Amino acid sequence: MTTxxxxxxxxxxxxxxxxxxxxxxxxxxxxxxxxxxxGLASVALFGRNVTTAEQVTALTAQLRAxxxxxxxxxxxxxxxxxxxxxxxxxxxxxxxxxxAVDDTVLTRGVARELGRRLAACGVNFNWAPSADVxxxxxxxxxxxxxxxxxxxxxxxxxxxxxxxxxSTGVAACTKHFPxxxxxxxxxxxxxxxxxxxxxTLHERELQPFRAAIAAGTxxxxxxHIRVPVLDPERPATLSRRILTDLLRGELGYEGLxxxxxxxxxxxxxxxxxxxxxxxxxxAGADAICVGGGLCDEDTVQSLQDALVxxxxxxxxxxxxxxxxAGRVRSLASWTAGVRRSPAAPADFEPEIGLTxxxxxxxxxxxxxxxxVTGPVFVATFNPAPNIAVGDETPWGVGAELERLLPGTAMxxxxxxxxxxxxxxxxxxxxxxxxVRDEHRHAWMRTAVDTLLAADPDTVVVEMGVPQSPPRxxxxxxxxxxxxxxxxxxxxxxxxxxxxxxx
Length: 502
Prior knowledge:
The chain is an alpha/beta fold. It contains 18 helices and 14 strands. Helix 1 packs across helix 12, helix 4 (95-101) packs across helix 14 and helix 15 crosses helix 18. 56% of the residues are buried.
C-alpha cells in the first residue's frame, strides 16, 4: 500500500516520541536536551546516572527545563533490582519477600513509599512490578523478582503494588507480558521458549496481568519470549498476535505498551536493533526501551531513521506510529497533570522497607544448635549475577554482622573449591554461609556440604529463592538480597529467631 506522510517534522517527532533512550553521566547531556526540543518525550535512568537522591533531583530538573511533561523512567523494582540505590542496596525488599509475607496492605504501603521517593526525585515512570509467576524454580532471570509461584498470590500483590505506586503519581509498568516465569533461558542472552498449552497460559501466566489491568496499570512491558501457542514465529515483543490481538483485544488493555530492552540479544541478536524496533511498533508496542547498554545519540538517530524509513517505504503504517506516539504523550500528560495534596509527614513510612524485610525472614533451627554469641566468619558464595540485577550493588550480611558482632571477618568465594577456601579462611571460627539460589548452583551446594561436614553448627543464610531444604544449625531465608534483607538476616543470626513474622 502507499503511505502518505503528513510532513517530515511530524513524522520525525513521532519517531522520537516512541523512544525511551538512556544516556551516560549524572547530568543532562547536550544531545538529550536538544532532542527533547525536537520531540523526544521520554528518557530512562540507569545505575550509571545515579549517585544520590539530590543529584537525581537536579538531573530531572535539568531535563524538565527542556520539556515539562517529560516521562522519566527507571527500572526500580527494589529488592535485588535497584537503580536509585545501586551502590548501597535497596531500602525495600523485592517482590519475593513481599509475597512471602503475603500482606497486600504491606505491599501497597511499600510501593507507595517507593513511589513517594521516586516522585520526590522527579521520576514519574517505573518499569515495575514484575507480574511473572515463578513457575520454574530454575529460572535464571526472574527468581526473587517474582512475588511467588502461586498465581492468585502473584495477582493480588501485583494489583496492590500498582495501586500503591500510582497513588503517588508515578506510573506503573507491569512486566514481562505475557509472563517470563516459566523460562530456563535469560532473554538478555537468547530467546526463551515457553511451551505451554493455552489453558495453562490463561489460567496462570495471564492472571496477574488481568489483575494489573483491573487495578489501572498505566503501562505494560512486553517480554522477549517465544510462546508457540500464541505465536510460533515471533517473540512477544514483535508479535501482533500477542500485543494487539491478545493484550489489547482479548484483555481489553488501553494503556501504554513498552518493550523490554531492545539491545537484549533475544531481539538485537536475532533480528537486529533497527529492524526489531520497526517490528515492535508494527506489532503494537508504543514505546521502545533502549539504553541499558547503548546510550549514545547515534543510537537514537539510527532508530529514528529506521522508523521514518519504514513509514516512507510502507513497511510501517504512519497511523500506527502516530498512535504509538500519541499514547506516549498521553501518559506524559497524565503524570504531568496528576493533582494530589502534598503528603503530610505522618503519611511517610520511611521504615516500611525494613519492617517488610523483617517480616519476610523465616528461620529453621537445627536440633542441638547453639546460639551465635560472638564473632563469626561470614563466607559469601557469589553466583554470576544476571544482567537485570547487575554486579554493582552490594549484598549479603557481612557488614551488618560485623556491626552487631565486632571482630567478625568475611570473605567472598566462588567455584569448585569455594568450600575448602572458605574453611581455610575461617581458621576455626564459626561460619555463616551466605548463598543465593543454592538450588541452581551445584558448586554452591558442594561448598555448603563441605562447611557442614567440618562443623554442623554452621549457619546458612539463603538470600535467593529458598528452594533447597533448610539445613545447618540455623537456616535463615530472606527471600531476596536487598540491603534491608541483609539487615533482617543479621538480626536473625544474632537473635537465633525471626525478628518478625508475617
